[in-house]
Structure formats: C-alpha cells, structure tokens
Write a structure and sequence with these properties.
By secondary structure, this protein is an alpha/beta fold. The chain contains 16 helices and eleven strands. Strands 4-11-10-9-8-7-6-5 form an eight-stranded parallel β-sheet. Strands 1-2-3 form a three-stranded antiparallel β-sheet.
Length: 336
C-alpha cells in the first residue's frame, strides 16, 4: 500500500505513480485498434478479439430496471457500439441472465461479445452452472466464461484440483460452449497472483482476468499496481470492473463519475465494465467512452492526489474490506 496522508508531495507522487505501473507509459500498451460509432475498441489480450473500451455490467440490469427497460439498456448499448456484455450465473438469482437472453434475441446476439461467470468449484457443479447460463442467455455458447469470486487463498487449488471446475470448463471449451476462459475476484491482489501461479504450475494460460480498477485502488491493496503489470507482460486481457466502486467512490465526493471512468480507461484495460441501471447511466458511459483521451502523468497524478486521503484504509472499497460483496460467502452452496 502506498503510504499516503493528507499532506501531498506532487513530484514524489508522480514518481510513485510511474514506478508502480499506473502511469500512462503502461496504459499506452493497450491502444485503440478501431472505433465503432465513436467508441474505441481494444485488443483482448492475445485472443485476437477486439472489444469496446467500455462494457455493460450484468448485475444491475437484474435489479432496478423493469424487464422492458433492461432489454432496452442492453440493445441500446449494442446499437451504440458497445459489444462487451458481462453477466454471471448467480446474478439476482438468474434474473440478469434471463433478461440479457431476452435482449439478445432478434439478431442482437451477433453484435455481442458475451461473457458470463460460474461459481462452482467441482466439475459437476461447474458443468451444471455453465449449461444453466447458456439456457438462460438463449445461446449455444458464450465468448468468455470466467471463474467467479476467486477471493479465498485456497480457491485456486480447488479450481485446479482433480475433478475440479477447470475440468468442466475445458470440456465446455472443447464442446464449443465456451470460447475463452478467465477468472475474476475483488478481494486481494495476492490471491489473483496466486491463481496465476497455480495456473502456471498446471501449464494453463488464462485469456482474461477481471478485477476492481479505479481511482481508489492505487492506494490500498492495489490490483493496478500488483496484478495489471503481470497481465500485460503475459498477454492476458485486463478486464476492469467497479470503476465507480459500485457507487461507493461517489460517496467520497472526491472524483465525478466520468473522471472515474476515464481513469479506469487510461489503465491498460481491454475493457472497463460498468453497471448501468438506467438509460441515463448508460448514456453517461457511452459519452465517457466517446470522449476519452489518454491522460498524461500529471493528469493521473492529480486524480490520485484527490483520492489518496480517502483511500488509504479501503473505506470506499467495501468489496475488499467487508463481506458485503461476497456472494459465495453468503451462499457457500454455490461453490459445490
């Protein structure tokens, strides 16, 4: 963790920003390769796929909006140039996948790079969850399936164990149900690094890794500092999530929403996944993507200077410091 307090030395912070891999010289490695409807697209690791710089989160469409509005949000996103769609087997008891499946009818599936996630650690449980996700999403395959909530130190060993969920994922890929494989987590960057180490021991290379990347992360148990440089080096697609900290960052009154989005886009992310529970919030994300311009070190430093005093204890990153966001802790049966 960066040792920050309310007194701030701008020159020292700029040097620390660059040294820890947060600076724009790292972000420059992930450049826009094309643009659709004004939205930049970036390469997704070494997959050969290009994805929109902003992605639509799946959790929120299963909550606040009605089914009709959720479908409108998904289709508007796709029509506007966003192609990356996020979801998960456990989101809102399956409602998020069901609504997205409805939205992907009538030719919309062809516009989407579709991702979902599973919780199961056993081969049987993971296989069942994969099939249930495909059924809800009304598709015969997802472009990317990820192991969800790798948040416990022994999760990697369980996933890679004999008759573990990796076996189900590999069989699903062989059967054409899954094209690419990744994992997600929000708790601690060291667990992410351990997952990558365990994968190497088994001769397995992930296509993507998803983690919280935002204006608070640089100061506390930082995924941006610890994990992102490893992923860039190994050619693994970087999926940023919680650019607004699930709304917690806005409560700090330090950085406005669009600046939060632009900071995450300025990191070497292939895509920044953000939740949109209304057309207003979706349009904000679309406008932010279209307006994004790479930041220089001084701009990055200025943002981090504003957030440092509020960030050093993880107060506005509840997914790291509390169990509020830990679905599989609250529902251990999902891991079976």
């Amino acid at each position: 963790m960066l040792g920050m307090n309310t007194t701030f030395n701008r020159r020292t912070f700029i040097k620390a920003t660059i040294a820890t891999g947060i600076g724009t010289q790292v972000a420059a490695r992930v450049r826009a390769v094309e643009s659709k409807n004004g939205i930049p697209y970036r390469a997704l690791g070494q997959t050969g796929e290009n994805v929109s710089i902003v992605g639509l989160g799946g959790f929120h469409i299963g909550q606040k909006p009605s089914e009709e509005e959720a479908i409108r949000i998904v289709r508007t996103a796709l029509d506007s140039g966003i192609n990356f769609l996020d979801n998960c087997w456990d989101y809102n008891g399956g409602t998020s996948e069901l609504r997205m499946g409805q939205a992907l009818r009538d030719g919309y599936r062809q516009k989407a790079f579709l991702m979902s996630k599973i919780d199961g650690h056993s081969k049987a449980g993971a296989a069942r969850q994969i099939d249930e996700s495909l059924q809800r999403l009304q598709t015969d395959h997802v472009d990317l399936m990820q192991f969800h909530e790798v948040i416990r130190p022994d999760d990697p060993e369980r996933i890679f164990a004999e008759a573990g969920s990796l076996e189900a994922m590999l069989e699903a890929r062989k059967a054409g149900k899954v094209r690419y494989i990744g994992f997600t987590g929000h708790k601690n960057p060291d667990i992410h690094l351990h997952m990558l180490d365990v994968a190497r021991l088994h001769g397995f290379h992930f296509d993507t890794v998803q983690m919280p990347l935002n204006v608070m992360d640089a100061h506390y148990e930082s995924f941006g500092r610890k994990v992102v440089p490893v992923l860039v080096k190994e050619g693994i697609g970087v999926l940023g999530m919680k650019p607004l900290g699930s709304g917690w960052i806005l409560k700090s009154s330090t950085v406005p929403p669009v600046e939060c989005l632009h900071y995450a886009m300025n990191l070497p992310t292939s895509v920044v996944i953000t939740g949109c529970d209304s057309m207003e919030i979706l349009n904000q994300a679309i406008d932010a993507a279209r307006a994004f311009q790479p930041m220089d070190e001084a701009q990055v430093s200025a943002i981090l200077a504003k957030t440092a005093p509020s960030a050093v204890k993880g107060e506005f990153e509840g997914y790291k410091t509390t169990a509020v966001f830990d679905g599989t802790v609250q529902h251990p049966e999902w891991l079976l």
